[in-house]
Design a protein that fits this description.
This protein has 19 helices and nine strands. Helix 11 runs antiparallel to helix 12 (267-278), helix 11 runs parallel beside helix 14 (290-300) and helix 14 runs antiparallel to helix 15 (309-318). The chain has 390 residues and is of the alpha/beta class. The protein has three domains: 8-211 and 328-383, Enolase-like C-terminal domain (TIM Barrel); 218-247, no CATH class; 249-326, no CATH class. Strands 1, 2, 3, 4, 5, 6, 7, 8 and 9 form a nine-stranded parallel sheet that branches. Strand 6 (128-131), helix 6 and strand 7 (154-156) form a beta-alpha-beta unit. It is 45% helix and 10% strand.
């Protein structure tokens, strides 16, 4: 069961605050765009890296009422000003927005750019300062430097850190409070260095990440020695280029190709790849990557010619001890429990969150509280369900 009091939950005007409070949630964050900002920049130039109106509060009175409701329940509310960049024109506007935000009685302000941090350092801040995950605190030295320079009340660690990295940073910076994500990140990009926009109102029907996932775009991986061999030859010959285009026999690459063959319904290619997998030493890679085995089972189950391989993978997977580090990057009950066990040993991790604005957090939490503790759940499907375009 997930303790809800430490959960940091993002909200928007459509959120059911009463239901979340009744569930035990006490920590909230949101973005606010006043009319003057909307008139000048719209939501497409957002100070909090959310770019759709439905994900923003635009009515100060409505937001203040919600903050009051949260405070009456003993909760806290943090405002997000965590855009990772600004310029000479926007900097004064952000400071005006910061002054307006503090009149709303917010408890903390989440900041994501060094330039805004420097401005805050010079002029002070009435609310607590929280360093955003978009600042990219990926190491212990980074945490120590930022903590010393800006004296924040909390640092939010990026979602693509591993449990081991989180443990190192938090355990060796005991005087600093940290916020972390409840599960590891599956994105191909590093969060604090990702500048892919997450959708604009009336500009795109689907953001780039969603498009790539749903359209199942595939690319062919270069061989491991591609760059060294290419750079060593000042004028690459046709023979060299042809040799570099060879096929890797690594299990990960074979599964990538099988995934594509299934999508293209190329049965001859499916049979060829199954034959190659059949002669591979699969036990060694499975010991290093348990998730690889589950992916192999899912793909092989779709190929009739691979029926004899499934018992072999199942037997090998039973011999692999669960790895909490790997489990953290799974959106299921075992992954969440691995994270909770780690965080419980680190008292300065005072909050953790899941991405939820516009998603089904209430249903997920309700299911966790009332379902069989041994049951598995597909949290990816629940949290990242496709939304209707507004």
């Amino acid at each position: 069961m997930i303790p809800t009091a430490p959960l940091m939950v993002g909200i928007d005007p459509s959120s059911d605050i009463t239901a979340l409070l009744n569930l035990g949630v006490r920590q909230f964050f949101a973005g606010y765009l006043p009319p003057a900002w909307l008139e000048s920049y719209g939501a497409q130039l957002s100070p909090n890296r959310r770019y759709r109106i439905k994900e923003q509060f635009t009515d100060a009175a409505a937001l203040q009422s919600i903050i009051k409701q949260i405070h009456q329940a003993g909760g806290v509310f943090n405002l997000t000003l965590n855009t990772p960049w600004s310029n000479a024109q926007l900097q004064p506007e952000l400071l005006v927005l910061l002054d307006q935000a503090e009149t709303l009685d917010v408890d903390g302000v989440v900041v994501g750019s060094l330039s805004l941090l420097e401005q805050i350092k010079q002029r002070g801040l009435q609310s607590q300062l929280i360093l955003s995950n978009l600042l990219g605190v990926y190491s212990l030295p980074a945490a120590q430097f930022l903590a010393a320079r800006y004296q924040p009340s909390k640092i939010v660690l990026p979602r693509d850190l591993s449990l081991a990295e989180i443990t190192q940073i938090a355990s060796q910076t005991p005087q600093m409070q940290f916020e972390v994500f409840l599960f590891g990140d599956h994105c191909r990009l590093s969060e604090a260095q990702c500048f892919v926009e997450h959708g604009y109102d009336s500009v795109v029907q689907q953001d780039l990440c969603g498009y790539a996932q749903q359209k199942r775009q595939h690319h062919r991986r270069a061989l491991p020695d591609f760059k060294p061999r290419l750079l060593a030859d000042k004028e690459p010959s046709a023979e060299l280029m042809q040799s570099l285009a060879g096929e890797s026999l690594a299990l990960t690459d074979l599964l990538d190709q099988l995934d594509r063959a299934l999508f293209e319904q190329d049965t001859s290619q499916q049979q060829r790849l199954v034959a190659r997998i059949r002669v591979q030493d699969t036990r060694t890679p499975l010991l290093r990557n348990l998730l690889l085995g589950y992916r192999a089972l899912n793909l092989l189950a779709q190929v009739p010619a691979a029926a004899d391989l499934i018992p072999r993978f199942q037997q090998q997977l039973q011999q692999v001890a669960p790895d909490p580090q790997t489990a953290y990057f799974k959106l299921d009950r075992s992954g969440l429990q691995a994270a909770l066990d780690t965080f419980a040993d680190l008292p300065n991790i005072t909050s953790y969150k899941v991405p939820m604005r516009g998603r089904k957090l209430l249903e997920v939490l309700h299911g966790l509280q009332h379902s069989d503790p041994q049951a598995s759940a597909d949290f990816r499907a629940q949290l990242y369900a496709t939304e209707a375009t507004p």
